[in-house]
Amino acid sequence: MERIKNIFGVGYIYDKNNASIQYVVSSVKDLQVIKEHFNKYPLLTQKWADFELFKQALAIVQNKEHLTKDGLEKIIAIKASTNNGLSDELKAAFSKVVPVKRPVVRAEKITERDPY
């Protein structure tokens, strides 16, 4: 986790009672760093589609649209289309939200060795 944090230069590592360790990036400014990295070094498989959805949600937050009911519902619709989808609680709270169209994943092979 320290290596990942050092690559990005943002975020922090959270040790949850020695049961798990998480690398967390939460500020919009720091999330922009993550976005720029994965724009430069694209993800493969379904993670690429989730990243495209993440960029849509980040744009909503950057434009402060998330502060409105419509903006929040846009983010929920995006989250509903990610690999993990919505929790049961969010499904119940936003039962009328329609998931956005999930980006189509391009079939690619890994051709270079991981630079890290």
Summary tags:
47% helix, 116 residues, two-stranded antiparallel ribbon, mainly alpha, 5 helices, single chain, Endonuclease I-creI
Please outline the helices and strands.
Blueprint (H helix, E strand, L loop, with lengths): L1 H7 L3 E5 L3 E5 L3 H13 L5 H17 L6 H12 L7 H6 L23
Antiparallel strand pairs: 1-2
Helix pairs in contact: 2-3, 3-4
Gap between N and C termini: 13 Å
Structural class given helices, strands, pairing? mainly alpha
In the CATH hierarchy, what is the superfamily of one domain?
Homing endonucleases
As residue ranges, the low-confidence spans are none
Instruction: Look at the structure and give the CATH class of one domain.
Output: Alpha Beta
The CATH topology of one domain is what?
Answer: Endonuclease I-creI
Cα radius of gyration in angstroms = 16 Å
Helix content class: 40-55%
DSSP strand tally: 2
User: How many helices does DSSP assign?
Assistant: 5
In spatial order, strands of the major sheet run 1-2
Kindly report the oligomeric state of this protein.
single chain
- Largest sheet data: 2 strands, antiparallel
Name of the CATH architecture of one domain? Roll
Q: What percentage of amino acids are in beta strands?
A: 5-15%
**Integer average pLDDT:** 91
SSE pattern, N- to C-terminal:
HEEHHHH
The rough form would be described as globular
